[in-house]
Amino acid sequence: MTITRKTTRRADALRCGSRPRLLAGLVAALLILTSCWGGSSDSSGSAPPTSPGAATTGPGQPSSPSGVPGQLSAAWEAEAAPLGILMGVAEGLVVLPDLADDTSRMRLLSWTDGSEQWAVDITKDLGAADFLEEGPTMPPGQVAIWAHEAEAEPSLLVYDVTDGTLISRIQGKNGHHLAVGESGAIYEMAYSEEESGKVTITRSPSAKEFDTKQWTIEQGEEAAELFWVREHEGFVDFCVDGREGPVHRYTCYMSLHVADGTPVAEDGMFLRSAWVGEILVGLEEGGPLKAFDKGGKELWSTDVPAGYPLGWGEHLLFFAQGDEMDLVALDPRTGQTLWDRTWAEQEWSEPLIDQTPSPEDGPLVMVQAHPGVKTGVMDPATGEVTLVDHGLTEFREAERGPGGTLLISSGNYEALTWTVVRPGEAGDVWPDVLAGHEQFEMLAGRLVARKGDRITLLQAG
């Protein structure tokens, strides 16, 4: 079982047997990931826990409680077309039409009990689209989808989550890439029509005001990435998924002032960069690692091997890549080494970190995969971590679960078993928690499982 891909086509069903992210030949891994901890929002507002296998008579009518403390259980079940995309937003679960079934109703289900809050027919919005794809993350109150049609660029459709009305339709253009900031601003990147080897970046205040351009800048062609952005305290970071390096999830390569699009640092572009509080740390091709204050003044520079900087609150961690994996903590104000740890190659694989790592997500969670699965919580101030053995073997991958838990898959790829653990805590290992479900995914911090035309919200009791 693997996480579903969030697309739906008329003739291409979701494949729950697709290969998980980690390779089958992996014999050892030491992963780092962020995990919600303690009082997270994953289960807030949910109905009382119920038995995953028990029947329900409809949304808002859960079955009897499971009676197992801490066990994952079904808060509610609801009906959805097998190929319809599910999208999680703060306001509820958005269910997109299943074009393979010639349906065109978009729905919003309540996180509390699964009841339908509204349903709208979006046939006219879709036009000749033959498959849909989840759009970029929008600010609260909005949700976006890509509508694809043959021999045409996809359109971005933005809806009001309150009632499902269409806010804006942005027609895609060949060679143009769009990203949405936390404020709802739209960033568009395209090859410059005026100068070869350049890309043009524009900022619009919102999807509704897409034709209003607040500023336009030009950057070198190396900036032309399939990108996403992260806005914070007057700055916007440009990031890309899957770039080569010790961290494959994402890397950020440019930080601009939101007000006018000017680069924070004179260097402009980096191979990889990260913010540590109000300090921007960037790694250039082949080094060195440099730090700048938010006004662009260089604070320090130091030679480092190939690797990746991570800002975790006021802590600067650097993952060095080589025959052995080094994790080094630096003083973000001076660049001096505070502590370092080295793992042999057979004990370590790439770190697994969320796209927006932050202490707000919880502590840094360590998962060691060989010879048995162990988890622990790392103190970024000291690098200390105590690993707890959960008695699991044949590790495959780890996912964040609801309520500060981890979902860990083990066994062979033909028959994966998913187990829930609390990182760094012995006991309370709940095996085979997804038995009876065909697919699952984490949506807005909540675990949603599917089987056929039934969707189930699972929560940690």
From TrEMBL:
Q: Which residues belong to any copy of the Pyrrolo-quinoline quinone repeat domain?
A: 284-385
**Where is the region Disordered?**
41-72
Report the InterPro entries cross-referenced here.
PQQ_rpt_dom, Quino_amine_DH_bsu, WD40/YVTN_repeat-like_dom_sf
Pfam families linked: PQQ_2
Q: Which SUPFAM superfamilies match?
A: YVTN repeat-like/Quinoprotein amine dehydrogenase
Taxonomic superkingdom:
Bacteria
Supply the name of the protein.
Answer: Pyrrolo-quinoline quinone repeat domain-containing protein
Organism the protein comes from: Arachnia propionica
